[in-house]
Design a protein that fits this description.
Blueprint lengths: L1 E2 L8 E4 L5 E2 L10 E9 L8 E6 L9 E5 L2 E2 L2 E2 L3 E6 L3 E6 L9 E6 L10 E5 L11 E6 L3 E6 L9 E6 L10 E5 L4 E8 L3 E9 L3 E2 L2 E6 L10 E5 L12 E7 L2 E6 L4 E6 L10 E5 L8 E6 L3 E6 L4 E6 L10 E5 L11 E6 L3 E6 L1 E3 L5 E3 L2 E6 L10 E5 L2 E2 L2 E2 L3 E6 L3 E6 L4 H6 L7 E6 L7 E6 L8 E2 L5 E6 L2 E6 L7 E9 L3 E6 L2 E7 L11 E3 L11 E9 L5 H6 L1
Parallel strand pairs: 13-42
Antiparallel strand pairs: 1-2, 2-49, 3-48, 4-45, 4-49, 5-41, 5-48, 6-40, 7-8, 9-10, 10-11, 11-12, 13-14, 14-15, 15-16, 17-18, 18-19, 18-20, 20-21, 22-23, 23-24, 24-25, 26-27, 27-28, 28-29, 30-31, 31-34, 32-33, 34-35, 36-37, 38-39, 39-40, 41-43, 43-44, 45-46, 46-47
């Protein structure tokens, strides 16, 4: 290991037998940076957050919250969202119900702009796309080009009109939007993505009540062809078990997991088998662990956490253990956390060390629903069932705004965005939902982070939406944070990853080929955080495999220079 200042030589050169942590107090890349890693991946967990090379540390205290009221954006009533989706630059909030009724108004935030800058926000009313009633959605997915919105209800009936947006088109141009009616008459709640298929979690059917009809769409097939969609009624596979009514989808390992809303039974699908075959599906009844209503989940690379919607029991499963064995599962009563007086959550995040549960509502002694702001988090480097591993913070008032009533959200690599739903006031006074647009944001790193080159990332981070970012490169500058992803998983084996920032553009190379780029600007943040190989500082993002070499240049290398490395 050696530190150099010559422009031709790398600022940092690391080999396999060197220490994994490098003191980098004198490291000052300015407005140019190249990070290269030669590695051999031995794991098959493509959606796990795995760091290759980083100068990145998450905040140890929960204090960096911010809020912005986007409820009146572009002159539209932009509020009442269920979940959000991130495409690498923009955050899309999935529309459900504004201040008046079911909505098709999609809210979008440009993460390259200021959070409080009105110019960073746009809204588009997608209702009426392709002549259909396209309003009332619930989470969604991103396949690398298209953003999909999960159908739920338009206010008159449950529907399966899938809405999608082409990110290569103009956000406010109707030609960038499409909709397709599958005709199932069933609501869906949340979506997942395994690299090819978008999976929708069944909620309630118009005619039969809660549904167990799984739906998936093949992103390699025509969007408006019913043959591109496949269904599977899983209830026939599990006689005696209640396998229906789900709220959230997660992809972990080779399995797609469906989060049970009402009936306690977690279901998973083996993506290596036929979608309609009985042996592709498994079910585990977690009632004995105290599981009740759940909404959403998150994954730390080893354990999948199920979010308690209106109760106090967080249940988690170790994906490396037998799914149908109760010993593979744990539960924890969040009522044991010091200072936590209420509970009830909606969605969750993972920042590389901590799992956060998004506060929603609780039921008081008079059986009245009360929306609260008690966000709790768990340190995944500590025992799950120990109360000391958990913290709580009241975030019910941030930036002078009332910040309660959120439904999941999304993570852009640095910031969590909680999707504003409704705060309950009008529901109690008039018996109806009135959506709000007060977006709550949490900064997971502050100035503790400079850059991170990841082998893979967790694209289902937030609870109700799915993507598969694959390798990615993120930088923090004094102008903001910028990220670029491959939007595909890499096969196991040897690869070279390279992230390059030249002051104007951030680029990602895989095996000497450019796979993606996006505009970026500013001076890279300086801090005392060490450079870490194969993880983040004090984190839980260990790379599964061997990193053979890493080099860092305080300049932007050309593709030819990268290939020579």
């Amino acid at each position: 290991m050696k530190m150099q200042n010559k422009t031709i030589e790398p600022a940092v050169s690391w080999r396999q037998n060197d220490k994994s942590e490098i003191n980098a107090e004198s490291f000052s890349p300015g407005e140019q940076l190249t990070v290269i890693a030669g590695l051999d991946s031995q794991g098959n967990c493509a959606e796990k957050m795995q760091a290759a090379v980083s100068k990145w540390k998450v905040n140890e205290t929960m204090e960096t919250f911010d809020a912005y009221d986007a409820g009146n954006t572009d002159g539209l009533d932009a509020g009442g969202f269920l979940g959000a989706i991130f495409d690498g630059r923009y955050v899309y909030f999935s529309p459900q119900h504004d201040t008046k009724g079911r909505s098709g108004k999609v809210l979008r935030y440009d993460t390259h702009g200021g959070f409080h800058d009105r110019a960073s926000w746009q809204a588009y009313d997608a209702d009426g796309t392709d002549g259909l009633s396209t309003r009332g959605f619930y989470g969604g997915g991103f396949d690398g080009r298209y953003v999909y919105f999960t159908p739920r209800t338009d206010g008159r009936e449950y529907h399966t009109r899938v809405l999608r947006y082409d990110t290569q088109g103009n956000f406010k141009c109707s030609g960038s939007w499409q909709a397709f009616e599958t005709g199932l008459g069933t609501s869906y709640q949340g979506a997942g993505f395994d690299g090819r298929y978008v999976y929708f979690a069944p909620g309630t059917a118009n005619k039969t009540g809660q549904s167990g009809i799984m739906l998936r769409y093949d992103t390699k097939a025509a969007f408006k062809d019913i043959k591109s969609y496949e269904t599977c009624d899983i209830e026939k596979f599990f006689p005696g078990k209640t396998v229906k009514d789900f709220d959230g989808v997660a992809f972990a390992g080779k399995y797609v997991y469906f989060v049970p809303l009402k009936f306690n039974t977690v279901v998973r699908y083996n993506t290596e088998k036929n979608f309609t075959d009985a042996d592709a599906w498994q079910a585990f009844d977690a009632a004995e662990l105290g599981m009740k209503y759940c909404v959403g989940s998150t994954f730390d690379g080893q354990k999948l956490y199920f979010v308690p919607y209106d109760n106090n029991k967080v249940v988690c499963y170790d994906i490396n253990q037998d799914f149908e064995n109760e010993k593979s599962w744990e539960s924890f009563d969040v009522g044991k956390i010091a200072g936590n007086k209420v509970f009830g959550y909606d969605g969750a995040f993972f920042d590389g060390k901590f799992v956060y549960l998004i506060p929603f509502f609780y039921t008081d002694e008079n059986k009245k629903l009360n929306f609260h702001g008690q966000m709790v988090r768990y340190d995944t480097t500590k025992p799950f069932a120990a109360a000391a591993s958990w913290q709580v913070r009241d975030v019910s008032s941030v930036s002078g705004l009332k910040t309660v009533g959120y439904n999941a959200g999304i993570f852009d690599g640095r910031y969590f965005y909680c999707a504003p739903w409704h705060d309950g006031e009008a529901y109690h006074s008039a018996g109806k939902i009135v959506g709000h647009g007060r977006v709550l944001r949490y900064d997971s790193t502050g100035n503790n982070a400079s850059f991170i080159l990841k082998y893979s990332d967790y694209g289902h981070n937030g609870g109700l939406s799915g993507a598969l970012p694959g390798p990615s490169f993120i930088i923090n500058t004094d102008k903001g944070n910028y990220s670029v992803s491959a939007n595909r998983a890499l096969p196991a084996g040897k690869h070279q990853l390279a992230g390059v920032y030249n002051g104007k553009t951030i680029r990602l190379y895989i095996d000497g080929k450019l796979v993606n780029e996006t505009p970026a600007r500013g001076k890279i943040c300086e801090n005392a955080t060490p450079i870490v190989i194969g993880n983040i500082s004090d984190g839980n993002t260990a790379f599964e495999g061997v990193i053979e070499k890493a080099v860092i240049f305080c300049k932007a290398l050309s593709v030819e220079q990268i290939r020579k490395q």
